[in-house]
Write a structure and sequence with these properties.
Helix content is 87%, strand content 0%. By secondary structure, the protein is mainly alpha-helical. The longest helix is centred in the N-terminal third of the chain and has 53 residues.
Length: 124
């Protein structure tokens, strides 16, 4: 009877150990997958922040950039008229950045394309 009890106990212990190993392996696999997803998300968030720092107008369309440029130019003129030169200087920097953004987002028309082709052929 004692031998049978020991065998059952040992078998139960071994089965529990196998189940634990299986569960641990599954847990480690899930943890690894979650860690990988979190790392990818953090990388994407960081890349978005860097893109936003480099180009603050990256999420605006051409029309939105153009409208914003016009409104900022009006604000600049108002600041100069009211002799708020510090504000005007800040707005002037912003207007310069907006002009670059507008030009980079400008739709490519046939005239612009022909001009660029002419410039390249002239350099060659």
């Amino acid at each position: 009877f004692l031998k049978l009890t020991r065998e059952r106990k040992a078998a139960s212990f071994m089965a529990a150990w196998v189940r634990r190993c299986k569960q641990r392996k599954q847990y480690i696999s899930f943890r690894k997958a979650v860690t990988l997803l979190q790392a990818r998300k953090r990388r994407q968030s960081a890349a978005d922040r860097v893109r936003k720092i480099r180009d603050p107008f990256c999420d605006l369309t051409f029309k939105e950039c153009k409208d914003l440029l016009e409104s900022e130019q009006v604000r600049l003129q108002d600041a100069v008229k009211s002799k708020k030169f510090r504000q005007a200087a800040d707005l002037e920097k912003r207007v310069a950045l907006l002009k670059e953004a507008v030009e980079s987002k400008r739709p490519l028309t046939r005239d612009i394309l022909d001009k660029r082709i002419a410039q390249v052929t002239q350099k060659l």
